[in-house]
């Protein structure tokens, strides 16, 4: 009899893992709280379409996607002449596509179902079902559902991951500084689009209230036009605050209209190092549940899809059919070798945003310390080494940095943190030993957590207990 795989949550990674395993003869069911035809959010997403090739999912038809335009990066008080425009090569191997999220879901659901996976909608998952140390199923509002293993694709605050016994030391919640609280809404575009210089304008540290980013992306098709507003902050904020902030942005961005046409709600994006321990007996976390997004920009669709292939292969190659932590740990090791090890240090770079102030950032942009090389970061950039660039102007950029002692004092420790990180990362256990892995996980997380503001972290942790 074929082994029963439970996929918790119809996320992007969950659907492709379901497709790959069903294709290999497993009995796979995806359990999802959303309703059929209504999954995802009411907005568009950008992702690396080569992820589809990794899992063998056919590309969408050409009328379903567009190639992404270059972003321009601004600091809070950047001179227009100093803004940084990305220079993504005009090469499909480097470029990302933009699609409606509902169309991405439709494509992946069709793919999963075409391979024989089943999807049950309207099932609210409450936590894992445990038998001693082993995850044997999920607890839902429809009762317990048991299986041979659970793939956790329930996202950043997955109830499956959160409900695992604490002694497994699989991190329950991302900390302050490791996630963005995001408000996103589409507004009308009240000006002629040809007068908009920055079609995809990203501002770093836009608001004095605290660390964050914002974007205003404007678009016009034959049938409609809009400006897409995203406000992302490390601190939680209210809708009232989001609307006031939008009002403030309108003063310098006439492309942002006042009539809200789509979206208008809050979500959470993990922007941190990948989960230190991704597996347990009968359990593996994937996608946002394993914090697999690109830590600086929060893109996670392509990564969830690509890494579902590693997990599906490890499960299918388990001749013991036990899906034990020992076996599933091969997935974590392969993931870290292929992507995780080099994507995690981007979180150290991102943490700088939590330490520098608006003036220091403006200085870094206006004085050319940050350049288009660093800012040409896409969902394809899953490595620190793609982010760093040693161009001929480096000495000049170094001098500018030294001339700002405040910024230098905050930026210099990044180098030490990166060295410490790589020493720890290369010492990740190659085989599963729970005690050794827990010790390693503590050291790994410490590199990222040690510079977080303790009061903010404490306040955020308390909010989970409320
Ligand atoms: C505003 C915003 C913009 C983004 N833009 C981009 C972008 O442009 N490009 C990009 O690559 N990434 C983007 N991301 C990130 C991207 O959405 C995620 O990284 C990606 O969706 C991760 O996929 P996943 O498989 O982990 O699961 P998710 O997409 O997080 O899906 C989790 C699924 O689990 C279900 N679920 C959760 N809890 C339960 C429960 N209790 N019971 C049952 N089901 C449950 C949810 O309904 C959902 O269907 C964005 C995120 C946000 C919030």
Q: Your description of this structure?
A:
With about 475 residues, the protein is of the alpha/beta class. The protein has three domains: about 220 residues, FAD/NAD(P)-binding domain; about 90 residues; about 120 residues, no CATH class. The protein is about 35% helix and about 20% strand. It has a seven-stranded mixed beta sheet with strand order 6-5-14-15-16-13-17. It has a six-stranded mixed beta sheet with strand order 8-2-1-12-19-18. A three-stranded antiparallel beta sheet has the order 3-7-4. The structure holds flavin-adenine dinucleotide (FAD). Flavin-adenine dinucleotide binds next to helix 1, strand 3, strand 13, strand 17 and helix 6.
Task: Provide key terms for this protein.
FAD/NAD(P)-binding domain, binds flavin-adenine dinucleotide, alpha/beta, seven-stranded mixed sheet, single chain, six-stranded mixed sheet, 3 domains
Summarize the structure.
The chain has helices at 12-23, 50-55, 101-114, 159-162, 239-252, 301-316, 325-343, 345-351, 358-366, 372-375, 384-387, 394-402, 405-425, 434-449, 454-465, and strands at residues 4-8, 27-31, 44-47, 65-67, 72-74, 84-85, 97-100, 118-120, 125-131, 134-140, 143-146, 149-152, 179-187, 200-204, 212-220, 225-233, 260-270, 279-280, 283-285.
């Amino acid at each position: 009899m074929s082994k029963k795989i439970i996929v918790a949550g119809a996320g992007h990674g969950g659907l492709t893992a379901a497709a790959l395993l069903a294709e290999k003869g497993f009995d796979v069911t995806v359990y999802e709280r959303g309703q059929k035809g209504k999954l995802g959010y009411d907005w568009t997403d950008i992702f690396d379409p080569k992820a589809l090739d990794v899992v063998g999912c056919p590309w969408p038809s050409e009328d379903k996607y567009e190639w992404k335009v270059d972003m321009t990066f601004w600091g809070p008080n950047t001179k227009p002449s100093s803004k940084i425009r990305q220079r993504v090569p005009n090469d499909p191997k480097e470029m990302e596509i933009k699609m409606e999220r509902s169309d991405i879901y439709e494509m992946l659901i069709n793919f999963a179902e075409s391979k024989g996976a089943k999807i049950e909608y309207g099932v609210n998952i409450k936590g894992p079902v445990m038998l001693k140390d082993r995850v044997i199923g999920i607890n839902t509002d429809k009762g317990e559902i048991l299986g041979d293993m659970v793939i956790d694709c329930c996202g950043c605050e997955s109830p499956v991951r959160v409900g695992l016994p604490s002694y497994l030391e699989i991190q329950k919640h991302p900390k302050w500084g490791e996630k963005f609280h995001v408000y996103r809404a589409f507004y009308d575009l009240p000006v002629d689009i040809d007068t908009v210089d920055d079609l995809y304008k990203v501002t770093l540290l836009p608001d004095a209230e605290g660390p964050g980013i914002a974007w205003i992306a404007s678009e016009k098709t034959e049938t409609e036009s809009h400006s897409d507003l995203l406000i992302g902050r490390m601190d939680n904020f209210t809708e009232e605050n989001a609307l006031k902030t939008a009002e403030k942005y309108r003063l310098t961005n006439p492309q942002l209209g006042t009539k809200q046409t789509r979206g208008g709600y809050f979500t959470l994006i993990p922007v941190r190092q990948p989960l230190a321990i991704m597996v347990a007996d009968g359990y593996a976390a994937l996608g946002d549940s394993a914090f697999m997004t690109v830590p600086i920009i929060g893109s996670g669709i392509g990564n969830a899809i690509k890494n579902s292939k590693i997990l599906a292969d490890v499960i299918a190659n388990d001749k013991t059919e036990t899906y034990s932590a020992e076996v599933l740990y091969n997935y974590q090791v392969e993931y870290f070798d292929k992507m995780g090890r080099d994507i995690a240090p981007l979180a150290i770079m991102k943490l700088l945003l939590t330490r520098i102030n608006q003036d220091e950032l403006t200085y870094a942009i206006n004085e050319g310390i940050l350049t288009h090389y660093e800012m040409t970061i896409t969902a394809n950039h899953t490595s620190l080494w793609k982010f760093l660039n040693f161009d001929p102007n480096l000495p000049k950029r170094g001098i500018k940095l030294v001339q700002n002692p405040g910024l230098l004092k905050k930026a210099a420790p990044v180098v030490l943190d990166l060295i410490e990180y790589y020493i720890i990362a290369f010492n990740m256990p190659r085989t599963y030993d729970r005690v050794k892995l827990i010790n390693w996980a503590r050291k790994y997380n410490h590199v990222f957590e040690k510079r977080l503001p303790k009061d903010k972290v404490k306040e955020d942790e308390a909010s989970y207990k409320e």
